[in-house]
Specification:
Helices cover about 10% and strands about 40% of the residues. It contains eight helices and 51 strands. A five-stranded antiparallel sheet has the order 1-22-21-24-25. Strands 3-10-9-6-7 form a five-stranded mixed sheet.
């Protein structure tokens, strides 16, 4: 938000057009403190090992979707900070989506999803989102349980940061813990000289905060005693009472934010004091007191933020531009600017496996929607965190806030939100640092999409300032040839690449007269310029603890349903696998049988196998990065998961498969280095004999040559680079079938519909369509959207 809104105050206060040090600090703030924040929506709050995690990401700059970044890294960690998987997500208008496939043998514990843009790494890691996800596994030796208690601490914060003799002062009391807080609490305020006669008492608004008011006397010492519902108490000292300073009071109203300043024992009273309001690190309000007075009040209209919601940081500076008081307050807390979806038709049923639909208006200003439909269990459990609380609150604070979504719910307590903000400081920047001229070091600039640098080496020497031909081949497309030139360091740069298929990059060196090109003794490396950053911080505390399993494990009902759903999916897919294998076997010609007989020894011969013949059949594999990447999606029941080295590890029906190279056990890294042109046959064996689940790679022998109609084989003068991770497709399906072999007795799907990009077409209204499971009587429907002006549509309700 770049527009400065200066308001003409009462005659005691006038707008400021220029100030010395402060004016320079504001310019510094405007030019150097653009920052982003991320919200990650997942389809569920807890998972079973073997589940798929569907996620949608929203990246904001302030309170609008960010235009700074087009790339987001989303990473999955275990509790030991080991990287399990990661995705490179394409952002369009600040939005992107993806998914993680959890392994069936994943240990039961709490896992963490971290998300950040490359530009966010210029600032504190504390502002990156780390989402907590418990994952259950009935076969694990340890079980997740809810911790019964937690230690906590309490602090008291005076409004504006000052505690002055004779000034009635509002305090916020904040309770915090590394783990979620348990229950509400009470407190009392005492004079330490008369501890048995409380000055006032209070009850918390929620688990986080409470407030009270007190008029202090000089020389007195005050304390707050906080007690939780178990009887445990903490004693907190209030600040020392001073005899001079500036007292700040803030009141929220429909018209805007009213503030009052009172000066106590100031030499020049409030004359030449400045009031500065910032929203999202940008100047929103500025005024000066130009008269010799001890008290001044004014109203900051709500339109200061274009009628939108957000946090205003109010800072008071003295005549020497020293920060003397500050306060955070929420703009229009009683009037959240949230739209709801316009529903023009709906067909909702409670019948098991029935088809349901909800049609949205094609005439709406909102054109693209994120939609999640889940079974509602009737508990009416409130959201703990949502997009609104991340956008307006937690995305800009590093302290732990219990259930922040409550502050933007239908029955939100605005007093509680105000008390919470009194207890917080804005840490996106520090006024004293900005006043001193400090500028953040921007080491990673915001780049459009993905960028790489290519280093060709010929005859072991760099090609500096040399003419070359650059050949780019995306997927199965024809390559494009572009004359290029290396720079003084021997590099060629590829900038702003937006693709989700393997890109083959080749370099041909040209002669001096550019008449001939050659690949002789030419070696090429490609280095990505947009890369993930290691996580250095600590994961947030959780309400869970791991205990040793004794006897039968008790799983949450939703996890039991998830495990049953996985069994249904395997059963539903097993017949397809068998049919597909019969088809594949039927297609094999005698040359393939002979090839298999030639290359395979006894223990690796199996009837339950799928064979890909590269000698007698054109497998169209030339454009793939490696053979494991090519195998993705080509064999029923075979999936790959990336390990922390970025290698594809095969799994067959949920179990890890052993890799063999020419029937010798090996690791993915070895297989990935084998040129596809050297591969004669690939065999997939599923649960057979001594081998079990296995992927076997056989290389060429003797005079064998690959059969291919494509320009084959990656050479030393080329390299294949991966682009963005393409999201999987969420299938809209019913498990009802007449096939007795695929009959599902109990449909227990929790996520009934997931669409991170439901859009308005010219002919059909945006339609949410899904099949019921066997038990759902009502559905939780979440709809999120933004119009062209970034007005928010957020609807989370139950449909019956």
């Amino acid at each position: 938000m770049k527009n400065i809104f200066c308001v003409l105050l009462i005659s005691l206060v006038s707008p400021v057009l220029a100030q010395r040090q402060l004016e320079k600090a504001i310019t510094n703030l405007e030019n150097n403190y653009e920052q982003e924040k991320v919200y990650i929506l997942t389809d569920k709050s807890q998972y079973a090992a073997g589940d798929k995690i569907w996620f949608k990401s929203f990246v904001f700059e302030g309170y609008n979707r960010s235009a700074l970044s087009t790339t987001l890294f989303v990473e999955l960690y275990n509790s030991d900070k080991k990287l399990i998987d990661w995705k490179t997500v394409l952002l369009t208008n600040g939005e992107g989506s993806g998914d993680f496939q959890l392994k069936e043998n994943l240990p039961e514990q709490v896992y963490f999803v971290r998300a950040y843009t490359p530009y966010m790494t210029n600032f504190s890691e504390d502002f990156q989102i780390v989402k907590t996800l418990p994952v259950y596994n009935p076969t694990s030796t340890e079980s997740l349980v809810i911790a019964k208690g937690s230690d906590w601490s309490a602090k008291a914060f005076p409004e504006g940061g000052t505690f002055i003799n004779g000034m009635p002062t509002k305090f916020a009391v904040r309770v915090s813990s590394d783990t979620p807080l348990l229950g509400t609490w009470t407190g009392k305020v005492i004079d330490t000289q008369s501890p048995n006669a409380p000055i006032t008492t209070f009850t918390s608004f929620d688990k986080n905060v409470a407030s009270f008011s007190i008029t202090p006397a000089l020389g007195k010492k005050y304390q707050v005693i906080v007690q939780d519902h178990t009887g445990k108490s903490k004693t907190v000292d209030l600040p020392q009472v001073t005899d001079m300073g500036v007292h700040l009071e803030v009141y929220n109203s429909k018209e805007g934010i009213k503030y009052t300043l009172k000066g106590v024992n100031l030499k020049q009273k409030l004359q030449n004091y400045k009031i500065v309001g910032t929203i999202n690190n940008h100047l929103a309000y500025k005024a000066n007191i130009n008269q010799l007075i001890n008290e001044a009040s004014s109203l900051i209209p709500a339109k200061i933020n274009n009628e939108a919601n957000g946090i205003l940081q109010l800072a008071i500076f003295d005549e020497q531009d020293h920060l003397v008081a500050q306060r955070l307050c929420f703009v229009k807390p009683n009037s959240l600017h949230i739209e709801k979806a316009e529903i023009i038709a709906q067909n909702i049923k409670q019948t098991p496996r029935s088809f349901n639909s909800i049609d949205l208006s094609p005439e709406s200003y909102f054109k693209n929607y994120t939609v999640l439909v889940s079974e509602d269990d009737g508990t009416q459990a409130p959201e703990e965190e949502n997009m609104l609380s991340r956008l307006w609150l937690t995305g800009d604070f590093t302290s732990k806030i219990d259930s922040p979504a409550q502050y933007f719910s239908k029955n939100a307590n605005t007093e509680a939100l105000d008390a919470l903000l009194i207890s917080e400081n804005w840490k996106r920047f520090d006024w004293n640092s900005v006043l001193s001229g400090f500028v953040p070091a921007i080491k990673t600039n915001s780049q459009q999409f993905l960028s790489y640098r290519i280093k060709p080496i010929k005859n072991n020497a760099l090609l500096i300032n040399s003419s070359v031909i650059l050949a780019l081949k995306l997927g199965k497309n024809e390559p494009t040839l572009t004359p290029s030139k290396t720079d003084q360091n021997g590099y060629i740069y590829l900038d702003n690449l937006n693709y989700s298929e393997p890109l083959n990059v080749s370099v041909l060196a040209t002669s001096e007269n550019n008449q001939e090109s050659s690949t002789d003794n030419l070696f090429v490396t490609v280095e990505p310029l947009v890369t993930p950053t290691p996580f250095k911080g600590n994961f947030p505390g959780t309400k869970y603890t791991l205990v040793k399993t004794s006897g039968n494990k008790t799983l949450p009902p939703s996890i039991t349903k998830a495990i049953n759903n996985q069994k249904n999916s395997r059963k539903n897919g097993s017949s397809d696998v068998q049919i597909e294998e019969v088809k594949l076997t039927g297609k094999k010609k005698d040359p393939t049988v002979e090839l298999n007989s030639q290359l395979s020894s006894g223990m690796f011969n199996s009837l339950n196998s799928t064979i890909f013949d590269f000698v007698n059949e054109d497998q169209h594999a030339a454009g793939s990065t490696d053979i494991l990447s090519w195998l993705q999606g080509r064999a029923a029941g075979l999936v790959f998961q990336r390990n922390n080295l970025g290698e594809n590890v095969p799994y067959i029906r949920g179990s890890k498969a052993q890799l063999y190279l020419d029937e010798m056990a090996t690791e993915p890294g070895m297989i990935m280095n084998v040129p596809i042109s050297n591969i004669a046959m690939v065999k997939i064996i599923k649960g057979s004999g001594l081998v079990g689940n296995a992927v076997l790679i056989y290389t060429m022998r003797g005079n064998m040559k690959p059969k291919s109609n494509e320009k084959e084989a990656q050479k030393n003068n080329s390299s294949v680079i991966k682009g963005y991770d393409r999201p999987s497709e969420f299938l809209i399906e019913t498990l009802d079938t007449d096939d007795p072999e695929k009959k599902i007795e109990n449909d227990t799907r929790e996520t009934l519909y997931w669409n991170p990009n439901l859009f308005d077409s010219e002919y059909v209204p945006p339609r949410i369509k899904f099949f019921n499971n066997d038990t759902a009587k009502q559905y939780k429907v979440l709809i999120i959207s933004f119009d062209e002006d970034d007005h928010i549509l957020y609807q989370n309700e139950v449909f019956k």
